[in-house]
Amino acid sequence: MLTLAVAAGAAGVCARLFADEPYARSRDYDLQHSKMALKFDLEQKKVMGEVTHSLAILREGTPQVAFDSVGLTIQSVTVNRAPAKFETTAEKLLVALPAAAHAGDKFDVDIRYEGKPAKGLYFILPDKEYPNRPKQIWSQGESEDTRYYLPTYDYPNDRLTTETILTVPASWVTVANGKLINVSKAAEGMKTWTWRESVPSSTYLITVVAGEFDEVKQSWHGLPVTYYAPKGRGDRLLPNYERTPEMMEVFSKKLGVEYPWEKYAQVMVDDFVAGGMENSSATTNTSSSLRSPKLLPEFPGDEDPLISHELAHQWFGDLVTCNDWGDIWLNEGFATFFEMVWTESHYPKEQADYERWNMVQEWLGQPSLYAKPIVRHDFDDSSEFDGNAYGKGGLVLYMLRRQIGETEFYNGLRHYLEVHRGKNVVTADLIQAIEEANHIDVQQFFDQWIYGAGAPKFDVSYGYDEGKHQVALIVKQTQRVEGRVGIFHVPVDVEITTASGAKARRIMVSKETETFLLPANGAPLMVLFDKGGQVLKATEFHKEKKEWLYQLKNSSEFADRGEAAQALAKMKNDDEAVTALGAALDTDKAWGVREIAADALGRIGNATAGKQLLNALDTNELPYVRSHIVAALGNIKEEPKIAEKVAAIARGDASFRARASALQALGKLKAADAFPILSAAVDADSPDDFLRNSALRALGFLGEDKAVPLLREWAAPGKAIGTREAAIASLGRLQKSNKEITTQVAGYLKESHYPIRYAAIFALGSRGDASAIPALQALLKSDDLSIEMAPTVKQQIARLQKTESGKGAGREEGDTEKGEEGDGVAQRLDRLEHLIQEMNDRLKSIESHLSKK
Ligand SMILES: [Zn+2]
């Protein structure tokens, strides 16, 4: 799954309302097959169901069987067709067996029920504000929400086949797990769709989707590959999703295990509560991944991380499934790793390098993750779906591949998938499979990276002995050794460049302080520690400026040039550093390094940096690089020339992304003529409201009260959801003492639109108006908080309480942007909010773990 909060790195701090069970359950029975027939009452948002569970008793003398069931009214239960006694509790349905059963006894338990699911199953319907929205009903089971619409065994450590029978209006389309068996006429105006999944999987992977959808078909090796969009958006399917069959080919080949299901469907739905969900054979994704074809040229392959992530789950997560939530990295770490595998196979090397670079930066940017191991069972105060399971998990697999070799790595994965196909797994199963397949020992690797916590923090320096022709490289591990964090054993590639060339060698770092004596046939021009950035780590390498300059210009690998750019950015008023960054921005062969250089110049933020950025606009055509350049210009204040240029770009540039960045930069620069430009941009139409939404966000940065009526207008129900999100976010920043705004925004907490709720939660936190606390607390008590919303609500309540008690209610400084280094809570939350905004802008499709909390 890609949850929004995970994507924002929000997990790991605040308490969940309902923590997931950390350890696998003991089982009384094995659920083998469920046949479920569902009908829906749209008016009441109700499900009427009949489910027949075929199960086999595992425990001798079992008197009753328990199913997870929350908020459902059970009408009748039969066991082997005879009426059975049952009782319900708040979370369970208990069904008496005719007599204490023997292990191996088989029963069919039939349950008729109905209910209005608080979560698990969502009804997206037209209403008076959105009369034209296509009707959609969809489910989201992970982690423990299937029980809200289906009484079942709702923990991953059991697997079953399914038959899903959905009766819906004749004009609707349905999607469920497995093969479509039949569509038949039902009562007047209705049809009944029957789907059958013959490969067993866990109940959190059950999917039910029904509604008004457009469908487009492709195929892979004869298997149906289908895409669904809410009706009217079918033309957006192929432009965004057509690389799916190629991904299936790449993953099947790499793994040596064919795509394991009978079809692959991807259904895009509105108001989805996550980014994507890998239901077996039928993924559900947010419809915001259906970008307008007019914008797509500026976002090449931007949906690939989402598509490849959910596809990889079809092996890792669905074919083999974590046995308990403590091992969730076996799902999420692999899915994240395969995003990189796809990029490596389809795009230039520099792009994969950039993706990995960003993942490393994002993980390092979340200090709350550092002390926690990847496998853990103590997540009841936070969430198991954190940046360790995702980003760090993916990076650890990347390091494992490098350490044991590509062939050995995939041999191990193939063996793991073959041995455990259709089963539940823990991390020890993966270790054993890799060892069996390769006759190598990887225990230490897993001990330090998976069961241990953190990553090495290196302090590196060197000296050159001319007499001995030798470099003495001093490597210290400065991380605090405590808890689960130890001293790391890591192979590191070191490269020494002298006048006569470069020479690389691999050293094994394994002590707190070590000196490596390395031959060199002259004074080094450059010494690289961990060439190419292969290791997850933080490094302080004490180098002279001239070596950083040399490295930025001459090193062959992306990560080494990126590292040099960042080091030079720290030399604030150094013209030589600025000039070098400007040159990199003009000429570096990797566009990612050009973006990093632009960001670095923005961070330096002086007039010389501004000049370099302005010049670079002439040499950089790529819309995404231009957008970084313009965003960096937004940091360079009091330079009239810059404001003029930015305004010109905002008014008209070939690139939508550059224009959007320019609108935001105008807000941040608080340029004199910003307001008319921004309000004109709010009025103009663009694909996906791309420019309008940017302008609305920019009005928040601009901070002029006269924007308030405009923002309140565009925040109101009836406007496009993405536009409302932008306007609501900006209302969080303006007229913070105006209670009317607080009341308006708090009103949005009650809306059913998930993105609107999220925007309102953050905006209320930003406003710092403690009168919003009761509304947030009421939201917290409502029973329909999906997935990760509860921690976010708590964060914002804590933020408001802090404002109220600590620093006086009028405190507004905390959430203005003061640069990268500050670490105040308000600022970190602000960055989180910013990240959420950015994700919305990028259509919520990219897994990113940037923020602090
Ligand atoms: Zn996932």
SSE layout and pairing:
Blueprint: H1 4-7, E1 29-41, E2 46-57, E3 62-68, E4 73-79, E5 82-83, E6 86-88, E7 92-101, E8 106-115, E9 121-124, E10 136-139, E11 160-169, E12 173-176, E13 179-185, E14 190-201, E15 208-211, E16 213-220, E17 223-230, H2 237-241, H3 244-255, E18 264-269, E19 276-277, E20 282-286, H4 304-313, E21 320-322, H5 329-346, H6 349-364, H7 388-404, H8 406-420, E22 423-425, H9 427-438, H10 443-451, E23 457-465, E24 470-477, E25 490-498, E26 501-509, E27 513-519, E28 526-529, E29 538-541, H11 545-554, H12 558-569, H13 575-587, H14 591-604, H15 607-619, H16 623-633, H17 640-651, H18 656-669, H19 674-683, H20 690-702, H21 708-715, H22 721-731, H23 739-747, H24 754-767, H25 773-781, H26 789-805, H27 825-841
Parallel strand pairs: 1-11, 17-18, 18-20, 21-22, 23-29
Antiparallel strand pairs: 1-2, 2-8, 3-7, 4-5, 4-8, 6-7, 9-10, 10-15, 11-14, 12-15, 13-14, 16-17, 19-20, 23-24, 24-27, 25-26, 25-28
Helix pairs in contact: 3-4, 4-5, 5-6, 5-7, 6-7, 7-8, 8-9, 11-12, 11-13, 12-14, 13-14, 13-15, 14-15, 14-16, 15-16, 16-18, 17-18, 18-20, 19-20, 20-22, 21-22, 22-24, 22-27, 24-26, 24-27, 25-26
The protein binds zinc ion.
**What amount of the residues lies in strands?**
15-25%
Count the strands?
A: 29
The amount of helix comes to 25-40%
Q: What shape does the CA trace take?
A: globular
Query: What is the oligomeric state here?
Result: single chain
- Small molecules held by this entry: zinc ion
How would you classify the helix and strand content by structural class? alpha+beta
- Rg is 28 Å
**Tally of contiguous helical segments:** 27
Question: Largest sheet, described in full?
Answer: 8 strands, mixed
- First and last CA, distance: 19 Å
